[in-house]
Design goal:
The chain has 388 residues and is α+β, with helices and mostly antiparallel strands. Helix content is 19%, strand content 37%. A 5-stranded mixed barrel has the order 11-12-14-15-16. It has a 4-stranded mixed beta sheet with strand order 17-20-18-19.
Length: 388
């Protein structure tokens, strides 16, 4: 195991599904930095709605973490734009950088064989050196590289290419409140509260002053960025990490515990929320990061040829009831099609139903609540009794 993956995150705890008293009811530390197959889901709240982006870890070695972001944007008129970004967050920068790179430009990825790199900058976390001072209640110097563009472009994290103008913001970052505060996060589909530092930046450029509020994970190994209020220097933007999904292999010593826990939940409760399934914004197009979760579902169904099940689609409340109903139906149809076409699941054993926004798990009044409500559940037909 390389140096980049030997640490364990002590602050972020994973609550696995399962019956009380089983492994599923225990808490496990997550290895950090995140290993291959892990995904960070960020939601950008802006005027008009939310937009999610899934950043997958492709590789982790002594040089750092390589992320991939497959961006699919569906416009109101039906036009679809696609981009893929690959970038490396360097191990040395995670140790002591005091600068953050907050966008990715399309021109740097056309035909590029290697991931985009920006030495001296972190991308998904603050550095350990910064964290030590902030955790001790001290301010430190800080820079953010973002872009000058419209709010819509910024909502896509820099999508738009030639129209972007890089802007470097310089100043300080300091604790906004003493100690740590609880922060809501979905980890493998389970709601947890993690300790966070609440910070305030005071940054300037020739364009003016920017004073974003920032929350970071209270962890000295990888202080993951959890939330920005005023993201990308746009006052109405709120960028929030809403989910962290980990493959079973990422849980040191536990092998396929996540798949086993999901299987137990379907066996005992006949219903399970499916982590690791992602869709393009306002679309039923499955993100490539969903492949592993869908393969796991197919494997579970193959081990239980007597199980019949229904895929349920759920949305948040943004948009009309009719639009949300239709979207929820298209999304579960897409999951069913992938299970049948690529994994040879029996079509006769899989039904689909969309519920739109009618069955929320959490309040639609928060970014994290809306992210939780956008989900797919698998419901086993238990009418004939357990084991049917």
């Amino acid at each position: 195991m390389t140096a980049c993956r030997t640490h364990e995150l002590t602050a972020l705890l994973l609550l696995l599904p399962g019956a009380a008293g089983s492994l599923g009811a225990q808490q496990h530390a997550i290895p950090l930095p995140l290993g291959p197959g892990a995904a960070i889901v960020q939601t950008l709240g802006f005027a008009g709605g939310d937009r999610e982006s899934v950043h997958r870890v492709l590789d982790a070695d002594a040089e750092g973490l390589v992320y991939e972001w497959d961006l699919v944007e569906v416009q109101a008129n039906g036009d679809t734009a696609r981009q893929q970004f690959r970038y490396r967050e360097g191990s040395a920068d995670v140790v002591d950088a005091r600068r953050l790179w907050a966008f990715h430009g399309t021109e740097q990825h056309e035909g590029a064989a290697q991931p985009e790199t920006h030495p001296g900058y972190t991308m998904h976390a603050l550095s350990r050196a910064l964290y030590r001072r902030l955790a001790a209640g001290q301010a430190d110097s800080f820079q953010v590289m973002t872009v000058e563009a419209s709010g819509a472009q910024l909502a896509l994290g820099g999508f738009g290419g030639a129209r972007e103008t890089p802007v470097r913001w310089r100043g300080t970052i300091a604790p906004a409140t003493p100690g740590t505060v609880p922060f809501p996060l979905l980890v493998n589909g389970r709601r947890v509260q993690v300790p966070a530092l609440r910070l305030r930046g005071d940054l300037t450029t020739r364009h003016g002053r920017w004073t974003p509020e920032v929350w970071i994970l209270a962890d000295s190994v990888y202080p993951l960025l959890l939330k920005w209020v005023g993201a990308f220097s746009q006052p109405e933007n709120v960028l929030q990490t809403t989910r962290v999904d980990l493959p079973a292999a990422g849980l040191a010593g536990h092998g396929s515990v996540l798949d086993a826990a999901l299987e137990r939940e379907l066996d005992s409760a006949c219903r399970a929320e499916l982590p690791g399934i992602y869709f393009a914004f306002n679309s039923a197009a499955l993100d490539p990061a969903s492949d592993r979760a869908i393969a796991s579902i197919a494997a579970i169904l193959a081990r239980h040829p007597d199980w019949n099940a229904t895929l349920e689609g759920h949305t948040d409340s943004i948009g009309t009831g009719a639009a949300n109903q239709a979207l929820s139906e298209r999304r579960v149809e897409a999951v069913r099609a992938r299970l049948i076409e690529q994994h040879k699941a029996s079509a006769a054993r899989l039904r689909v139903v969309g519920h739109g926004a009618t069955r929320p798990r959490e309040s639609n009044g928060t970014i994290e609540g809306r992210a939780r409500n956008r989900r797919v559940e698998l419901v086993r037909d238990c009418a004939a009794g357990k084991g049917s």
